[in-house]
Amino acid sequence: MSQPPTAAPLTVVSVSAEVAPWSKVGGLADVASALPVALAERGHRVLGVAPRHAAYDDAWDTGLTARFGLFGQRHEVRFFHARVDGVDRVFVDHPAIRRGGVYGTDQGGYADNLLRFALLSRAALVAPALLPGFSLPTDGADTVFLAHDWHAGLVPLYLAARYRHHGLLSRARSILVVHNLAHQGRYAPGVLPGLDLEARWRSVLDMDGHVNVLKGGIAAADRVATVSPRYAHEITTPEHGFGLDPILRMRGPVPDGIRNGLDTRSWDPATDPHLPANFSADDLSGKAACKAALQQELGLPVDPTAPLVGCVGRLDAQKGIDVLLPVLPWLRDQGAQVVVLGSGSPLLQDALRRVNGDRVRVRIGFDGPLSRRITAASDLFVVPSRFEPCGLTQIQAMRYGAVPVVAGTGGLFDTVPPYDPVHQQGHGFRAWPGSAESLRHAFGDALYTWRHWPDSFAGLRDRGMRHDWSWNLPAAAWEQAMTAALDAPAWA
Ligand code: ADP
Ligand code: GLC
Asked: What is the structure's pLDDT at 1?
């Protein structure tokens, strides 16, 4: 449903390394996909710029090119285009970009990622002016670049250093959007001359004698934002700042913290074509069928009385799988069934493979349809992260009637108010981040409620399912942040 804009129409250029459904590693792809659509529905003109990691059937070659001098060479990029759901998607093509992987292979990141993402950033700044039918107003007075994570961190820098002086973008603004402070784009100082920036801007990129692209983006952006209010506070502290908390504090008391929404049209248990049965908050019979089907699919006893615990995510230190592992034997002893789907660190993959067995099923890989079947089948859904900027899987879980058991950090803290048995409020159960003991206690409370207070458990599930997780409210907050950026003088 189209939402009326509360602000004058803006021109929004969203720049990210991944965007679903064309490329996806994690939640950044979901956000880069859905936020632009939500903004377009509110009447804004939106351009989503991402790398052309592979040939995409629905994106046509515009024949348009641009040339940039980077790392001592002239590089020509080519622009591909698709218009989907009211958003112009531009895919930047270059031999260094078109590799299949988004960031690298199982062996590690691509050695030339800095070149790849510098090309993306430069291309994003010229894309709006090049694209036919997407003509900019004369001075970019309504134009905001949303630069997602370090991969787009050079957008604010190049905008301030170069393009601000071009008529077309002289009044444009940039917002650096932090989805994950753990990844900063750190390089040896020797790469600096390759970026083709004057001395002043080189020093903006410097951090402790290294090039730090995220730091440069934060320092040069007109505004800084992140993906939940709690994480916005956390990253200004040494504990969660990954060394960037001083510069974040310098940029203002705290960045804008706008919690992510969910694409509730795609993530709708009533219509999801990947589920063996559909269901809704009003009729949960299909959910029971989804549980039975998953138990059968994975060779677990088909037992409606066994609480099924789901877990889906990247296998990365951030996600706290090592916190969950010691709790698994206890969960098994309690009669729970546990299903984990993930891919990532070979070490964590091996550790998980070792616990695959009695009542625990581990699937290694990235499998969208299976992730939906697990989420729909689960009674409880665990997200044990050590830190979590926002997190989408717990939101997907609540939408699909799985009650979340989460570490109380970042967006998990914001989206999962804890169960309050006195007032019958809350959405789930919370543990201390990083503590297996606390996670076991949270599961203890959850299983006790499931077994002995089925009406209370049903209430928890119902509140989660009926909550408005759509992009409507977050998109309105983004609109305000972008308008504030345009109303303020340029930062750098
Ligand atoms: P992050 O961005 O840190 O990975 P999020 O919770 O924000 O965490 O987003 C993860 C997204 O990727 C969700 O849409 C989730 O469903 C999806 N996802 C993660 N791991 C897998 C997997 N192994 N298979 C399918 N989907 C996955
Ligand atoms: C990051 C974060 C995750 C967030 C996602 C989308 O990858 O790890 O918490 O939900 O970006 O903003």
From this structure: 45
